[in-house]
């Protein structure tokens, strides 16, 4: 039998549960443990997904010498401790984006992984999302030429900060949403971000202590990307998110709209755009790009794939997001 990577998942919120479901059907992985501070949740998830071990802390999970790798899916501001615990116990790590909400923490995690020669990957899942990945392949094949300018919009409904995320005030729309679009911009333009000029507005979520929206211009050596992220779309929106890309290049242009996924439904629930690409069951089998992220992570550990997501990407992502927040606060460009 081929060797399987024994994996544990820390953090069993919305994203953590998706990883649990996906890992159960990644042939190269063996999900052996889950952990969450909510004891009832940890027990329930272990029972529902037939996982042998459940814990109430990352430390307890990482003490298991059989575990090879850990997926950290805790809230944005709570990545540092479980990641460091996993690395210090010799585990490879896949951590949700953003890598951290503090650049200093991201840099420490990256250094620790390199010191121990362990994989530390950040889940920039849209690199595996077929439309966005196809754009990258077109760029690599020179069909579009080189990027000149881009507009990338990722907005959420207000139910996300006010309902779905109990910890929204501990993060921000820049870290929660713009981390996705910053990564896509860096991925497509391939070079480093040289300068950031950003603005923000705080009105609807003033009592929550977090901005409603950020707008940012990222300047590269050649070209720029204009990013927009808001999480105050009305609850009556047909989709929980609005995610669009327009990329203009020297030989062509491309437009991506993942808000609709080419399907809309009018029913007793109203008019909605269901989202199936990230995770969906076909004949009782999980499919979708999140599963492909987990499969890629496991295959890197087994030595059959080269990492498409690195700790350095995570660090630079946090560096740019911090510059966005700083620029919007100071009202002037920030050079990187």
Structure, explained:
There is one protein chain. The protein is an alpha/beta fold and 336 residues long. It has 2 domains: 5-123 and 284-305, 3-Layer(aba) Sandwich (Rossmann fold); 130-277 and 316-335, Dihydrodipicolinate Reductase, domain 2 (2-Layer Sandwich). It has 10 helices and 17 strands. It has helices spanning 14-23, 39-48, 58-62, 80-88, 103-116, 130-140, 159-164, 173-189, 289-302, 311-330; strands at residues 5-10, 29-35, 53-55, 69-72, 92-96, 120-123, 147-156, 195-201, 213-219, 224-230, 241-249, 253-257, 265-267, 270-272, 280-282, 285-287, 334-335. Helix 5 runs antiparallel to helix 10. It is globular.
Short précis:
With 336 residues, the protein is an alpha/beta fold. Helix content is 35%, strand content 26%.
CATH structural fold name of the largest domain = Dihydrodipicolinate Reductase, domain 2
**How are the strands of the largest sheet arranged?**
12-11-7-10-9-8-17
Largest sheet: 7 strands, mixed
Mean pLDDT: 96
Oligomer: single chain
Q: Quick one: CATH superfamily of the largest domain?
A: Dihydrodipicolinate Reductase, domain 2
The N- and C-terminal alpha carbons lie at a distance of 49 Å
- H/E element order: EHEHEHEHEHEHEHHEEEEEEEEEHHE
The figure for the number of domains is 2
Number of helices: 10
CATH class of the largest domain: Alpha Beta
Give the total of beta strands: 17
Low-confidence stretches: none
Structural class: alpha/beta
Q: Classify the beta-strand content into a percent band.
A: 25-35%
**Broad shape:** globular
Question: Architecture of the largest domain, CATH level 2?
Answer: 2-Layer Sandwich
Helix content: 25-40%
């Amino acid at each position: 039998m081929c060797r399987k990577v024994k994996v544990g998942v820390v953090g069993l919120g919305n994203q953590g549960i998706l990883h649990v479901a996906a890992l159960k059907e990644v042939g190269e992985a063996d999900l052996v443990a889950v952990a969450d501070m909510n004891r009832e949740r940890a027990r329930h998830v272990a029972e529902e997904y037939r996982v042998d071990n459940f814990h109430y802390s990352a430390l307890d999970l990482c003490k298991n010498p059989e575990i090879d790798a850990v997926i950290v899916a805790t809230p944005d501001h709570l990545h540092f401790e479980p990641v460091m615990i996993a690395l210090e116990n010799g585990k490879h790590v896949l951590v949700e984006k953003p890598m951290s909400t503090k650049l200093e923490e991201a840099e420490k995690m990256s250094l620790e992984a390199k010191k121990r020669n362990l994989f530390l990957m950040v889940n920039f899942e849209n690199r595996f999302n077929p439309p966005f990945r196809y754009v990258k392949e077109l760029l690599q094949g020179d069909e579009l030429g080189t990027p000149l300018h881009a507009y990338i919009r990722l907005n959420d409904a207000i139910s996300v900060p006010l309902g779905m995320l109990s910890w929204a005030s501990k993060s921000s729309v820049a870290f929660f949403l713009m981390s996705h679009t910053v990564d896509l911009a860096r991925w497509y333009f391939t070079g480093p971000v040289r300068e950031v000029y950003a603005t923000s507005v705080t009105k609807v979520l003033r009592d929550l202590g977090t901005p409603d929206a950020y707008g940012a211009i990222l300047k590269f050596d050649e070209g720029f990307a204009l990013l927009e992220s808001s999480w105050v779309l009305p609850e009556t929106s047909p989709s929980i998110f609005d995610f669009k890309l327009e990329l203009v290049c020297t030989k062509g242009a491309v437009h991506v709209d993942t808000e609709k996924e080419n399907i809309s439904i009018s029913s007793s629930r109203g008019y909605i755009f269901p989202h199936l690409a990230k995770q969906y069951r076909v004949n009782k089998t999980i499919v979708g790009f999140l599963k492909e992220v987990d499969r890629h992570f496991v295959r890197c550990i087994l030595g059959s794939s080269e990492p498409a997501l690195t700790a350095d990407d995570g660090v630079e992502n946090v560096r740019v997001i911090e510059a966005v927040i700083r620029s919007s606060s100071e009202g002037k460009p920030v050079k990187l």
